[in-house]
Amino acid sequence: MRTARLRIAHPVLWAGWAALAAGAVLCVIGWYGVSGERHTARQLPYLASSSIPGAALIVAGAVLLAHGRDAPAAPRAEEPYGRIVATGPAGAGDPGRPAGGPVAVSTETLAVPGGTLWHRADCPLVAGKAEAIPVDEKLVASGELGPCPICGPAEETG
After folding, report:
1. Does the pLDDT value for residue 141 go beyond 80?
2. Taking the CA atoms of the chain, what radius of gyration do you get in angstroms?
3. I need a labelling partner for 30 at 20 to 30 A (CA). Which of 13, 40, 55, 123 fits?
């Protein structure tokens, strides 16, 4: 999977570097041509044919490099969701859980410090996290934390 991501981003990165190099060469050529001309009217062709397209290629190269570096981040961001879906409600193959049943069934509720949701203790989002703390019923009643959409904890705990 990692090599597939590198193959996708690799041509984009190379195109970005090539555009940057071509833009730099065009800007140098334009600068050299403008520096050799004394009159403004004779400098304009160098600006129009070399310097402006060179600057545009530099910007395009920077955009391609930025996009190429961010491309591998998208699959990594979707990976936790894929794990949650994979451990979601099972069908008839899992006798421990009914088909279409909840992901988590614990009555104990937890929250991660700084988070905005409260979860069941066996929710895949907080299971195994040492920093998860028990949720106080006053905090839930105040509305500061919302229920997790994955594990769907009951409104009333206890």
Report:
1. no
2. 28
3. 13
Predicted TM-score of the model (pTM): 0.41
Residue 63: C-alpha distances to residues 7, 70, 74 (Å): 18, 11, 17
pLDDT for 4 beyond 80: no
Contact, 61 vs 25, CB < 8 A?
no
Question: What is the full DSSP assignment across the chain?
Answer: -HHHHHHHHHHHHHHHHHHHHHHHHHHHHHHHHHHT--SHHHHHHHIIIIIHHHHHHHHHHHHHHHHHHHTTHHHHHHHHHHHHHHTS---TT-TTS-TT--S---S-EEE-TT-SEEEETT-TTTTT-TT-EEPPHHHHHHTSSEEPTTT---SS--
